[in-house]
Amino acid sequence: MVPVEIRTLLGNSRTGFTPIEDVERFDGDHDYVEGSLCIEVDGVPFLTADYWDDVNWLWPFVVKASRDCEATGHGETMFPDQPIKFSVDRLGNSGRLRLSLTATGLSETAVASASEYYEALAGAGLRFFEHLERLAPGAADSDQDEIAALRRWQRS
């Protein structure tokens, strides 16, 4: 079992979801790419397709929150179009992170190894931005700081 698994699905609850790597073309608005960033920790779903949003905005927000956590021990962001807060907190010197999702009637948490989380985020994030560029050329042009962070976290 993979300790932290992250994947990106495109679509929404009305149209259904497809893994981004299986999408051959995207004809929608490049500013609003609907989909879901899914995270499992130790085989347990933490962030699921139930919480879909504009993934072209959500991915950079999650990367920035993770960068903030790396720098200060805490990072958080709101989903682009939903009242859902994603946060990531360093748990002392344990080498572990607490991931949290909070909203009215929603409180989810998961604890993961920091190194495994950042490595999984890097792999999935770089794949996401590669596919986003293939499907919606130019859509990731303003996300270069986030892409640089993902490359830094990628295991050599």
Structure in words:
With 156 residues, the protein is α+β, with helices and mostly antiparallel strands. The chain has one domain. It is 32% helix and 35% strand. The chain contains 3 helices and 9 strands; from the N terminus they run E-E-E-E-E-H-E-E-E-E-H-H. It has helices at 55-72, 114-135, 144-153, and strands spanning 4-12, 16-19, 34-41, 44-47, 53-54, 74-78, 85-90, 96-103, 106-113. The strands form 2 sheets. Strands 1, 2, 3, 4 and 5 form a 5-stranded antiparallel β-sheet that branches. A hairpin with a 2-residue loop joins strand 3 (34-41) and strand 4.
Number of helix segments? 3
Q: How much strand? A: 25-35%
**Residue runs with pLDDT of under 50 for 5 or more positions:** none
Largest sheet: 5 strands, antiparallel
End-to-end C-alpha gap: 22 Å
* Average of per-residue pLDDT values: 94
Number of domains: 1
